[in-house]
Amino acid sequence: MGYPGKHNRRVTTLELYVVKSGDTIHRIARRFSTPADDIIFANQLQNPNVLSVGQALIIPNTQTRSTVSRGDTLYSIARRHGVSLQRLLAANPEIANPNRIYPGQKIVIPADGRQMREIIVNGYVTDAADSTLNATLPYLTFLSPFSYRSDLFGNLTPTFSLNITLSAGQRTANLLTLTNLQEAGGFSSQIAHAILTDPAVQDKFLENAEALLGQGGWYGVNVDFEYIYQFDRESYNQFLRRLTERMHQLGCIVVTALAPKLSDSQQGLLYEAHDYAFHGQTVDYVVLMTYEWGYTYGPAMAVAPLDKVRQVLDYAAQVMPAGRILMGVPNYGYDWTLPFAQGTAARSLSNVEAAALAGQVGAAIQYDQTAQSPFFRYYGGDGRQHEVWFEDARSLRAKYALVNEYGLGGVSFWNLNNLFRTNFIVLESMFNVEKVL
Question: Which of 92, 24, 35 is closest to 64 using CA atoms?
Fold first, then answer.
C-alpha cells in the first residue's frame, strides 16, 4: 500500500514533527530531506503557508528511523523493533562503533525486518465521494455502510448514499449494517423492542436481512442496536444467538456495536441491555464505541480521551476475548462555543478542518497529556471564545498503542466520510491490515 492517493509505496515511518514558532513548510522539508509537496499532501495542508505552533505533522518516508533516547543501545533498539542486531548494523553502515551512539541520533530500521501485527479494521460510512472511498478501502478489512434501518414490522430500508461496489476491487468486505434507527432520526427503543420480542417481526427482520445478503456483495452483518430497554436485555441476547447461528450457516460473520461500559451494572438506557460477556462469547467481533465523551450537546472535552478509553478496555478485556474487540476511533472533532450552556450545540468538523481552522484564526494547538488529544481556543467573529478538540497523529498513535497493549483484534472508525490521510499513515506504520477476501 502507498499512503492514500499518492504513489505506490508504503510509508513505513512514523516520523512526527510538532511545529515551532518560525517554522515554515520548506524549512521542515529541508530538515527531514523530504519533498515539501509530500509533507503537504500527507497532511492535507489546505494552506501550506500557514502552520500553527503545536501542530503535529507526519513526515512521510519509506524508511523507518528510530531516534536514540538516553539509555538506548543498538541491542535494545533492535529488540524494540523486532530485528536482529546484525541486520540493524547492516542498515546503518555509517556507525563505526556500535557501542557509541548518542541521544538524538537517527537509526535506520530495515523495513523488511519489522514485525507488525495484522489487525482487523472496520470503517463506518454514510456518504462519501468515490475518490474518498478509493483512498480509504485499501486500509480496511470491513466497510460498514450505515445503515439499513428497521421499522416496527421488520422492514429494512437503506439510509446511506455511496458506491459500495468500489470495495470489490480493493479486497474489502462489506458488512450489512442493521440498526433500530427511526425514519425521523435517532435510535428507537420501541423498534428494538418489536424486533426482539415479537416473533413475527423478528422472523420478518431476519428474512429481509437474509434476502439482502443473498443479493451478493455482503460478508456478514453488523448489528448496531442502541437505546434498548433494560428489560429487553435477555431478549437481545437470545436474538443474537439466533442471528449468529443463522449467519454462520450461511457462511457469514456477525459484528455488534456496544456502548462504552465500565461495568456490567452500569445504569442508563444506552448501557444496560448491552451484555459484554454474552456478545463476546457469541458473535465474531464486537465494536466498542469508545468515543463521544465530548459530544454535540455536552461541554467541551476530548471526543475520545485516552484515560476514558482505557477504562472501557480494562472492563471489556476482563469479560470477553480481547481478540474479538475492535476499539472505536473517531474521525472528527467538535467546535464548542464557551461558556458551555445546556442545550447549545457544538459544531462538528473534520480533523483536517480543525487543523486548518487553527491556522486561520492564529491559534496555537495544545496537547492534553491525560486525554492524549490536541485542542485549541480562539475568539470568533461574535467575540465569543471557542474551544476545539480533534484528533492528530499523536492522539492516533496513542490510541493504536492500546491495540497492542490489550491484544485487541483491531479498530473501527466512526466515520470515514472525510479522508484523513494522517490516520492511515499512522495505522500502516504500526500494523498490517488483514484482508479476508
Answer: 92
Q: H or E segment at 361?
A: helix 351-361
3-state class (DSSP) for residue 275: coil
Asked if 283 and 244 count as a contact pair (C-beta separation under 8 A), the reply is: yes
Q: Which residues contact 190 (CB under 8 A, 6 or more apart)?
A: 152
CA geometry: angle 100, 65, 395, nearest 5 deg: 125
Tell me 266's DSSP state.
-
**Of 94, 183, 226, 292, which is the active-site residue?**
226
The CA–CA distances, whole Å, from 273 to 16, 25, 239, 282, 308 equal 42, 51, 12, 15, 21
DSSP characters over 400-436: HHHHHHHT--EEEEE--SS--HHHHHHHHHHEEEP--
Burial class for 102, CB neighbours closer than 10 Å (0-12, 13-18, 19+): exposed
Cα separation, 30 vs 13, whole angstroms: 17
CA 307 – CA 421 distance, rounded (Å): 25
Residue 277 contacts residue 264 (beta carbons within 8 Å): yes
Residue by residue, pLDDT tens for the chain (437 residues) are 555 655 444 544 568 999 999 999 999 999 988 899 999 999 999 999 999 999 999 998 756 778 898 889 988 888 887 777 877 887 787 887 888 899 999 888 876 555 678 999 999 999 998 999 989 999 999 999 999 999 999 999 999 988 888 887 789 999 999 999 999 999 999 999 999 999 999 999 999 999 999 997 899 999 999 999 999 999 999 999 999 999 999 999 999 999 999 999 999 999 999 999 999 999 999 999 999 999 999 999 999 999 999 999 999 999 999 999 999 999 999 999 999 999 999 999 999 999 999 999 999 999 999 999 999 999 999 899 999 999 999 999 999 999 999 999 999 999 999 999 999 999 988 899 999 99
| The model's pTM | 0.88
Rounded to an integer, what distance in angstroms lies between the CA atom of residue 70 and that of residue 255? Answer: 44
Q: Which three cell numbers stand for residue 25?
A: 513548510
Main-chain dihedrals φ then ψ at residue 364, nearest 5 degrees:
-80, 135
Concerning whether 183 is annotated as a catalytic residue, the answer is no
Q: 172, 170, 71, 78: which is closest to 121 by C-alpha?
A: 172
d(CA 394, CA 374): 8
